[in-house]
Amino acid sequence: MMNTGFKLLTTAAMMSLLVACGGTKKAEVVPDCVFPDAKDIAAPGWVCDEPVAGVSVSAVGSAQKSGAGQSFMKQMAATDARVQLAQNMKVEVRNMVKQYVEATGAGDAETVDKVSTSVTKQITSQTLVGTRIYKSRTSPTGTLYVLLGMDPNAVKVASENALKTSMNNEKALWQQFKAKKSQDELAAEIAGMKQ
């Protein structure tokens, strides 16, 4: 009888242990970086703009899967990254906002019309020298991602040139004149709306 009691006690203890082990949920691991086109699938950190050792100035570009082939996709992804890299180095942004409000009628019959318009123009003009693809990865959906960076010496030369062209030379004065002209045009547009 004691043997049966021991067996029952042992069986109950093992079942309690199994229930306790099976009842706990594992913590779901969420990756720090996922492919933008394939949610919940882990991607290398550089796809999410994490810094990469040895690449001081970089940008990530992408190209969707194409029947034109891998070389074409790589060229398109590199072009996308170069545009972003150039915009990080130098970008000219112009913005104009127009608002118009008109009320007609009176009392309960009054109607109000309101129109708002915002126009933004972004121009990037930068010569990039010494760029190359440092890393590439294809997502599960076939989109190609590339990490494009500039050679450290090219970064130094580009920085020095940017400083030289902005220091009281004719080009800088012309740029100041164009900026003032744009601001005057914007002010004239706004003044014309008030009439």
What order do the helices and strands come in, and which of them pair?
Layout: H1 2-23, E1 34-35, E2 38-42, E3 58-63, H2 70-89, E4 92-104, E5 111-123, E6 131-138, E7 144-150, H3 152-165, H4 170-194
Antiparallel strand pairs: 1-2, 3-7, 4-5, 6-7
Explain this structure:
This protein is of the alpha+beta class and 195 residues long. The protein has a domain at 33-90 and 129-150. Helix content is 42%, strand content 28%. It is built from four helices and seven strands, in the order H-E-E-E-H-E-E-E-E-H-H. It has helices at residues 2-23, 70-89, 152-165, 170-194, and strands at residues 34-35, 38-42, 58-63, 92-104, 111-123, 131-138, 144-150. The strands form three sheets. The protein has a three-stranded antiparallel β-sheet with strand order 3-7-6. A two-stranded antiparallel ribbon has the order 1-2. The protein starts with a helix and ends with a helix. The model has no long low-confidence stretch (mean pLDDT 77).
